[in-house]
Amino acid sequence: MLFFHPMDFLILIAFGISIWAQFRVKGTFNKWAEVPTSSGLTGYEAARRMLDANGLHAVPIEPVPGRLTDHYDPISRVVRLSEPVYYENSISAVSVACHEVGHAIQHSVSYPMLTIRHRMFPLVNFTSGIAPFLLIAGFLFGAMNLVGIGIIFFSAAVAFQLVTLPVEFNASSRARDLMISEGFITNDEERGVAKVLNAAALTYVAAALISLLELLKYIMIFTSNRE
Known about the structure:
Number of strands: 3
Shape: elongated
Helix content: over 70%
Order of helices and strands: HHEEEHHHHH
Strand content: 5-15%
Number of domains: 1
Structural class: mainly alpha
Strand order of the largest sheet: 1-3-2
Distance between the termini: 14 Å
Largest sheet: 3 strands, mixed
Radius of gyration: 20 Å
């Protein structure tokens, strides 16, 4: 049976953790968005200084609509910051802005895990769209060969999420170190920075956990049907 497998209980728990992580990151961001940095730097100013300090003068920073829509675009080599992060001078704004710059720095130094992630993306973009249809069709029609192919395709998506974890943690680590060394924050403010970055990282951990448990469930069902 595809549904009501014992692994589903673990997946539900992981899904619950994911929902909690989403609420936590929003709550943590909102809390520290009310605390201004002693340096008075906005997210944009901190990001610009951090880029320039690492020789990335040509990397632009653009404001984008929304909240928590911040990201680094490796194709255009642009740091994009949500408007609250771009314009405000809070602990949250500076933390998120510098985290995204951390990805730009990773790109510039060819950080191995980021390089692997970029090379995996075209393949994962293809396989992740097809895997659900292969799995559903395989289970509905009892075609275990289709299920096997679906598992292989789904495995690529899981591997991509697992590779994403060190990329995110490393970007946060770079951000925290440079924020202190460049004087963007004081040692006392580091606690708030850590809370913002750790809350964001938890969402990636939860997503990877859900995908990994789903993959294990499909593998268990596949092997039991083959036997």
